[in-house]
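Shapes recur. Our protein:

. . .
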Amino acid sequence: MRFAEPQFAVVFLLSTVLGFSSAIARGEAYNADRPPAAVEKQIRVDLGPYTPGTIPGGIGEPVAESRHIADEWEKNHPGRRINYQMMISTGTTEGEWLKTQLLGGIAPEIVTMNTEVAWQAVDKDWFIPLDEFLQRPNPYIPGNTHWLDSFANLALTNSKRAPNGKLYCITLDTVETGLFYNMTLLKKLGIAKPPATWSEMLEAFKVIRGAGITPMTAQGNLASDWGQDIVFEMVYHDLLPMLDPVPSPSDIKDYQTYFLDPPEGGFLFTKGFFSSRDPRWREVNRLVKEWRQYWARELKFSDPLRLFFTDRLAILWDGSWTIRRLAKDPYINFEWGVSYIPSIGRETSPFASGSPATLIGGAATQIHITNSAVRNGALEDCVDFLMFLSAPQNVERVTNEALLFMPNVRGAKMDEHLEPFAEIFKRKSCAIQWMEAMDPEYKKVWRRWLDYYLEDGFSLEEYLRVLDDNFAAWVKSHEKDAAWDFSAMEATWQQRKEALLRELDPVP
């Protein structure tokens, strides 16, 4: 998740701004009712949806546990004050506001953001590597000898290491998507349980659509963005062990067995994969287009939650954050359940093997310490506060209050409403996150052409040709980038070349 995906940001933006503004007026977020100490060191903290005063999803009471936890920490740290503040969202995942603050030397000491954004600036020393601190014991967890070991999914945690091998964030919790089923509605249509395979799903969609009901849709671009990543993995599943030119490090294989980072994707494109020459790539895009015909007619500006809650949508693809709405909305009057994307089998595609659909979520609240902490002499205090916050007895308080994500700390208890997502999260992660892999200018081009293709503005052939041009420009833009040195991948390619070329140009 990659928390702070565009879809999630849009869902929370209005409610967050309104809820947080009212909290400031009441003095809750900054704890303004307390007089400042004579000599006080302030630590500015952004905790995303856990920031006190925020109303996640616009329903329920404002969250407050992070404020209580800060108050408890302050009692043991006289002269220290935690000031919560929400970073400004510009509606993208590129972190423009934060980058401006960092350039001006006025960024908050602790920020929440996708760590991939931090990776783009590691040479600027804006963010503090946490490796040294993660090897220390967390004094707030009895018996802990290394803070790093307290995180439940170590493979996920280590997968957030930057290309330089350093870890710039702690992953407080995890996020995953799922299919929310209106089971009351489906049972009326003779569908007793969620489909187990892709072909069963398409047959169920036909029944639902025949009843005048929209079969499935998702928030914003989720289905067409993340959907293509999930379909991609199932179509390429059997080929990935040979296709992946740089094996995943051993400490993340339990989470990402075969993962193609941007340079790997770019290299394979230069060899013909993920292009109009690649039959599997063609199949991925064919399947996504076929799937799209069962989604809501209008994708960008419809309100899927409203459709789902009013029996006009049978299946909603959304994130674990939707649990809060379902658990707290007093007007929900139907039976609902959560499952995951069905597997694609041979009966649907000759390239598929029936492997389970992989995860598309992952790390949710990714917390970084900025160089403001060093500039203001607060680095050790920032580390200590994050150790306190990430102790199981504390992280469970903030996650269970918000009902958005699953705690990623050993020993932290999880609200029962989130348990279906914890079960889904036992799967492997996806092989690539295509839109996240692209630089912003090429991502925007792809996004525009993908929408055009899905709305019948392009044929498949026309769409693949414009993607070829976009991918070629993307790779060329990195030709002087040291991180895109293809020499090691080229050596692996030469060993596998004969077999891989048969995948591109199969013998009749």
Notes: Confidence is low (pLDDT under 50) at residues 1-38. Residues 6-26 form the longest helix (21 residues).
